[in-house]
Amino acid sequence: MSAIGFHEGELSVQRKAGVSHDAARLEGMLRPALLEGGAKKFLAQREFVAITARDADGRMWTTALTGQPGFLDAAGTTLTVHTAPGTGDPLYGLPAHQQVGVLVIELAIRRRVRINGELVRSASDELEIAAEQAYGNCPQYIHPHTITQPASGLPVVTDGTLGEMETALIESADTFFLGTSHPTRGADTSHKGGEPGFVRIDGADLWWPDFPGNNMFNSLGNIAVDPTTSLLFLDFGTGTALHLSGTATLQWDAPGETGRAVRFHPTRAVLNSWG
Known about the structure:
Number of helices: 5
Largest sheet: 8 strands, antiparallel
Order of helices and strands: HHHEEEEEEEEHEEEEHEEE
Helix content: 10-25%
Radius of gyration: 17 Å
Number of strands: 15
Strand content: 35-45%
Mean pLDDT: 87
């Protein structure tokens, strides 16, 4: 993932949305990562990270990791995460030497940093990531929450069919995390927020409107090239986590301010509960 700037999917979505000029002014944000100064301090103070990667079978998932301040250790272009997905998590034992997308977010103060790069080492209690992109995002659509450690035991695994617990969690959510990927640029994790109910269930699918944002279209640009997508919904009070893996498509005639929406079809689901 050595190329710099927007890839073909991002550029095509920007053109179709009529924001190419505005997006071009932000392309410098995609410069090579350096996790020093303010970025290093921000990471050291955080307690939550969402990560998108592929399991041993190549299926993509997004999961969440938590720890005490200091569990995210940045030096130069290396991010060390002093924890790893536990038993029952769909990314338990995730393989090294793959592209991953990391989102470090503080929901209470509405700040976030995206870090994309290669997972160069994966141990039972530590992940090491060689960062290739790192940039901040605006606080728009971030709802304040207190983080509870996502449960990692007693997983309920289905073929993507949504039961009562899964449906209730989705329909009440004002926040979820979206994982996407590009064949040569790697994985990406983004935050999506709205009023409770902004994610709709339509038969076997989910869909949500694409709200106005920074016009970079990192996630939608990835989906335009590679439909492989993963979602993570969290109940911040109980620690329940719903992981969905599947495919997504873009819609350009949807209701809402932008006319854009994403339709997601889950093919695998993992619900972790304290039980």
